[in-house]
Amino acid sequence: MNRKRSLGIVTLPLSVVAALFVVAAGTLTALAAPQQVLTFTVETDFAVDTGLFSSDGSIVCASGTTADSDFHANGFESERGITFHDRKTISCDDGSGTFELSIQARTGFNVGDDGTVGSWVVVSGTGDYVNLHGRGAITGTYTANFLGLDEVYIGHLTLR
Fold first, then answer.
1. DSSP conformation letters of 62-100
2. 55-59 contacts at long range (C-beta below 8 A, 24 or more positions apart)
3. Count of CB atoms situated within 10 Å of the CB of 57
4. Is residue 124 within 8 Å of 131, Cβ to Cβ?
5. What does the domain layout of the chain look like in residue ranges?
6. What is the domain class of 36-159 according to CATH?
7. CB under 8 Å to 37, separation ≥6 — which residues?
8. Is the dihedral of CA 91, 94, 95, 97 positive or negative?
9. In this predicted model, what pLDDT tens digit does every residue of 41-89 receive, in sequence order?
10. Rounded Cα gap, residues 148 and 43, in angstroms
């Protein structure tokens, strides 16, 4: 015996289709959190390669510590200054997680002897920051006797 199945087409009223569209659009909007501008600071002590992190706490934690890894620099032989690349891990004091930044910056002759300029991007995160994304600009000022660096990070962050 051969049975045939037919697929029925359901016709929905236009008002139901419109309502489904609104619900779907609202869900997508809720999933894609808007980027927010954030400024945070890092005070680094070169003697121990660690620092203190602080922010307003709106997107990421309000305070924490930092550690530098995979640091390398070049350009020491030029009169244009030094370019450096760094991975900076920020560990939140409240236990909410960590996030890592990749930093590309320059210092020395090309920006003056008292500071750094460059860019940063979020490359990974743990805990609450697994879905953290963002990038921005960095400026830094050397502390007394070049023993450390006070840095200001300005950019966009979002949790997706």
1. SEEEEEEEEEEEE-TTSSS-EEEEEEEEEEETTSS-EEE
2. 59/132, 59/157, 59/158, 59/159
3. 13
4. no
5. 36-159
6. mainly beta
7. 154, 155, 156
8. negative
9. 999 888 888 899 999 999 999 999 999 988 888 876 666 678 889 999 9
10. 7
